[in-house]
């Protein structure tokens, strides 16, 4: 009996319009160790080309669906696929073209992305082939022990530019990494009480309320005493912790900013939620795995005076100080514009350093949620 299934299409892969002649393949992922992934299934990059000393082209394929990075209700690819692609590029280009040793530790200090045109990100009948123009900059490097670097990228889909992003940080050897970890841990205090290591129980929020499909993918939980939002760090999660880490990965912090942002800006908008279109994360210190981490909403704004565009600034505090700050921008999906309200409206929340007893960030009402 013959199969009636047709093989996948082998159409020519799209080329970035600004670099005709540089063809990139989407046939298989790059080696997983070059992007610091343990699972081949989590590798997004497929090919690359070096244009000169500091500029590159990189190809990536985004899956039609993913256990964690799934399309939204409107069928658009998860924007955090863009963030993860930028992270993988940072490591891959450093190892592949720029002689940074595979044994070095990467420490990020900033990661941001912005999507100016989301129409090309609609998920269709095949995976999404994306091309990224990348520019590399060295800063503060002292090789071979320390490499300081920044990567700026422009995202194209089908030859259409739709977003940009940036990541910066350092790569250091074992000795310098140990010194940095020891220095960063000094001065931190672990709050008294039994909050560290308490088994996680979801409280008053569902996966749908934070834009997720599965309970296991939620990184938010409520403090049972003061109702603060805490960052849930599950080191057994197969994607957040694809491989062992001695600190909170930047993608976990970014997911915390995304989930709390979704919860705050979409209260009462479940039929037509705002979509994440921009995010910036600043890493100020290492986030420890064995200490409670509290998320504090510092500012919620409507920069155009319309509820169709919201900006949120959130910090994550641990041991008496913030270790990450994230700013997210949310926009209403394409459709008829909503008339703006007169003048910009900004809600400011006084920044208060968390104490062992907890602080009270801006918390959306839970009325009407099930």
Outline the structure in words.
There is one protein chain. The protein is of the alpha+beta class and 370 residues long. The chain folds into two domains: 12-186, Hotdog Thioesterase (Thiol Ester Dehydrase, Chain A, Roll), CATH 3.10.129.10; 189-370, Hotdog Thioesterase (Thiol Ester Dehydrase, Chain A, Roll), CATH 3.10.129. It is 12% helix and 30% strand. It is built from three helices and 13 strands. Strands 1, 2, 3, 4, 5, 6, 7, 8, 9, 10, 11, 12 and 13 form a 13-stranded antiparallel beta sheet that branches. Strand 11 (309-318) and strand 12 form a beta hairpin. Residues 10-20, 189-202 and 335-370 have low confidence and may be disordered.
Please outline the helices and strands:
Elements: E1 45-50, E2 55-62, H1 80-96, E3 105-115, E4 128-138, E5 146-157, E6 160-172, H2 174-185, E7 220-222, E8 229-231, H3 250-265, E9 275-283, E10 294-302, E11 309-318, E12 321-331, E13 345-348
Antiparallel strand pairs: 1-2, 2-4, 3-6, 3-9, 4-5, 5-6, 7-8, 8-10, 9-12, 10-11, 10-13, 11-12
Key terms:
disordered C terminus; Thiol Ester Dehydrase, Chain A; globular; AfsA-like; 370 residues; alpha+beta
**Averaging pLDDT over every residue, what do you get?**
83
Low-confidence stretches: 10-20, 189-202, 335-370
How many angstroms does the end-to-end distance come to? 51 Å
In helices, the fraction of residues equals 10-25%
> Which CATH C-level class of the largest domain is it?
Alpha Beta
Helical stretch tally = 3
Structural class: alpha+beta
Write down the secondary-structure element order: EEHEEEEHEEHEEEEE
Outline type = globular
CATH superfamily membership of the largest domain: Hotdog Thioesterase
Regarding quaternary structure, how should these chains be classified?
Answer: single chain
């Amino acid at each position: 009996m013959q199969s009636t299934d047709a093989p996948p299409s082998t159409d020519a892969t799209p080329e970035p319009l600004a670099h005709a002649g540089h063809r990139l393949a989407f046939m298989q992922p790059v080696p997983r160790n070059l992007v610091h992934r343990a699972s081949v299934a989590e590798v997004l990059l497929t090919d690359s080309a070096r244009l000169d000393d500091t500029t590159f082209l990189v190809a990536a394929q985004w899956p039609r669906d993913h256990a964690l990075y799934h399309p939204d209700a409107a069928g658009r690819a998860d924007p955090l696929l863009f963030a993860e692609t930028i992270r993988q590029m940072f490591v891959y280009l450093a190892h592949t073209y720029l002689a940074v040793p595979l044994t070095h530790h990467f420490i990020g200090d900033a990661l941001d992305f912005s999507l100016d045109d989301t129409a090309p990100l609609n998920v269709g009948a095949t995976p999404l082939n994306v091309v990224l123009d990348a520019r590399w900059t060295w800063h503060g490097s002292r090789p071979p022990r320390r490499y300081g670097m920044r990567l700026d990228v422009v995202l194209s889909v089908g030859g259409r530019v739709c977003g940009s992003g940036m990541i910066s940080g350092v790569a250091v050897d074992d000795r310098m990494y140990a010194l940095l970890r020891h220095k960063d841990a000094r001065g931190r205090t672990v709050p008294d009480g039994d909050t560290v290591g308490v088994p996680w129980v979801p409280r008053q929020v569902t996966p749908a309320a934070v834009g997720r499909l599965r309970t296991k993918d939620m990184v938010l939980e409520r403090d049972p005493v003061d109702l603060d939002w805490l960052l849930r760090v599950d080191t057994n999660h197969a994607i957040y912790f694809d491989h062992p880490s001695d600190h909170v990965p930047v993608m976990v912090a970014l997911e915390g900013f995304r989930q709390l942002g979704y919860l705050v800006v979409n209260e009462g908008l479940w039929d037509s939620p705002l979509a994440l279109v921009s995010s910036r994360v600043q890493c100020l210190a290492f986030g420890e795995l064995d200490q409670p981490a509290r998320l504090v909403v510092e500012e919620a704004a409507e920069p155009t005076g319309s509820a169709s565009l919201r900006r949120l600034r959130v910090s994550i505090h641990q041991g008496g100080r913030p270790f990450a700050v994230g700013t997210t921008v949310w926009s209403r999906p394409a459709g008829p514009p909503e008339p703006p309200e007169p003048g910009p409206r900004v809600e400011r929340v006084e920044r208060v350093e968390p104490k062992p007893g907890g602080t009270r960030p801006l918390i959306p009402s839970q009325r009407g949620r099930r």
